[in-house]
Amino acid sequence: MSLDMPAALRCRNMESQLLSIMNVLVKTAVAEIVQLFSESSESLQLHLSQSQRENENLRTRMKVMRSELFSLKLQTRTNRPASRFSAFRGNITKPRPKPQGNDPIS
Question: String of b and e for 31-62 (b: at least 16 CB within 10 Å)?
């Protein structure tokens, strides 16, 4: 049994070295993952804020264009005759209404 003891100690020593190496590798991997996540989230945040600004600019442009369209529609309504026959109506006299009642005018 005395010969097996150094082998057992060597096995424990190797296990502790292996655990130590694995611990360092895990910490390094976690640190790299955290750094990559941080960089990715910053990039995503930047892209998101740019998209939000673009959306807001587009909304503003859309409101301006709607307002311009509304103004143009109003202008065309006021500048255009109500119907294609309205230009001729100004020259035509309206018939007089017939008198009602017992007035002997005719």
Answer: eeeeeeeeeeeeeeeeeeeeeeeeeeeeeeee
- For the chain, give every domain's residue range: 4-79
Radius of gyration of the chain (CA): 45
Q: Which pair of tokens denotes residue 62? A: 């859309």
Name the pLDDT band for 90 (thresholds 50, 70, 90). low
Q: Of 9-18, 45-54, 68-77, 88-97, which one has max mean pLDDT?
A: 45-54
Considering the entire predicted model, what is its pTM? 0.47
Contact (CB, 8 A) for 99 and 105: yes
Q: Check residues 50 and 89 and name the one with the higher pLDDT.
A: 50
The sign of the CA dihedral 97, 102, 105, 106 is positive
Q: How many CA atoms lie within 13 A of 47 on its CB side?
A: 6
